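Subgroup meeting minutes
Present: P.N., E.W., G.H.
Scribe: E.W.

1. P.N. recapped why we're keeping a running log of single-chain structure predictions: easier to compare across weeks, and new members can see raw inputs and outputs side by side.
2. G.H. added today's entry (126 aa).
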Amino acid sequence: MRNSSRNVLALAYLGDSVYEIYIREYLLNKGIEKVNELQKESVKYVSARGQSKYLKDMMDSNLLTEEELSIVYRARNHKGSSHPKNTDIVTYKYATGLEALIGWLYLENNQDRIDEIMNYILNNNH
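Output recorded in log:
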């Protein structure tokens, strides 16, 4: 099965794990050692609100290719109305789009592109 035709929620499931590893490694490399502080800092990046903001920033800056945008749009427009209690459905769908993109890039073995996207996110945390 070609990776771009995979179920976008399955891609997001994988992408969530890859994304989280990047964030955890980044925070540990910053010298944060206490688990409570790691958790507090990670929320800036791994929350649906944070992920949604980063994706929108990348889209507004035209940093994504057409193929990458197609994955994001498929995930964002996926039918389904369930979402966490602490966020609205639109924010959640954008976050899912970012996770699906990361999962797709991972399955494409496109480590360089994942690095570029994650560096953008980690260097634009405001």
